[in-house]
Amino acid sequence: MIYVNGNRLPKKLPPKVYIALNKPKGYICSSGEKESKSVMELFDDYLSGWGKLNPGLPKPRLFTVGRLDVATSGLIIVTNDGIYPYLNHAHNIAMRRYIATVEGTVGNRHLMAITKGTVVDGVHCTPDSVELLPRQPDMPRARLRIVIYALKRVRIGGIGGYRLPVDLGYMR
């Protein structure tokens, strides 16, 4: 028997769970803030029925792998596997695909400008590819598919701020 902080660990651990979620806008990827809806609320029904489907197994403690801000929708992974985020770190899976919805008409000159990239903190960064997606009848605005390779966050607000090396081998 193993005890942690006076609590006995269960004999059986829950199976590993991996859920691909299309995160809707308006939800946050953490459970700490009370003023916002958390994506974890989307799993309340799943977790409430856990005991019936998995008798004797403790409920999994789910968390998101990666984050999208509250105004962004898109793919995130929800799991109880603590090793999974490390196996899927940006150093191992560097390519990211995004769909950007933009105002106005997008022409070849706009695509060329995006493809040429921009300078961020003195480093020239360019996407791997930029593609204008076909118009959809239910979507009046233009959409772009942008493929980038992993970026390294160096500053959030006033925290951080060291400069990136000029030669970023994983950027194109």
TrEMBL record:
Pfam families, alphabetized: PseudoU_synth_2
Tagged with keyword Isomerase: yes
Boundaries of every Pseudouridine synthase RsuA/RluA-like domain copy: 18-107
InterPro entries: PsdUridine_s_RsuA/RluB/E/F_cat (IPR042092), PsdUridine_synth_cat_dom_sf (IPR020103), PsdUridine_synth_RsuA/RluA (IPR006145), PsdUridine_synth_RsuA/RluB_CS (IPR018496), RsuA_PseudoU_synthase (IPR050343), TruA/RsuA/RluB/E/F_N (IPR020094)
GO process annotations (BP): maturation of LSU-rRNA from tetracistronic rRNA transcript (SSU-rRNA, LSU-rRNA, 4.5S-rRNA, 5S-rRNA); maturation of SSU-rRNA from tetracistronic rRNA transcript (SSU-rRNA, LSU-rRNA, 4.5S-rRNA, 5S-rRNA); plastid translation; pseudouridine synthesis
GO MF entries: pseudouridine synthase activity; RNA binding
Keywords (A to Z) from UniProt: Isomerase
Isomerase among keywords: yes
Gene3D superfamilies tied to this protein: Alpha-L RNA-binding motif (3.30.70.1560), Pseudouridine synthase I, catalytic domain, N-terminal subdomain (3.30.70.580)
GO CC list: chloroplast
Entry's family note: Belongs to the pseudouridine synthase RsuA family.
Annotated PANTHER family: PSEUDOURIDINE SYNTHASE FAMILY PROTEIN-RELATED (PTHR47683), RNA-BINDING S4 DOMAIN-CONTAINING PROTEIN (PTHR47683:SF2)
Protein name in UniProt: Pseudouridine synthase RsuA/RluA-like domain-containing protein
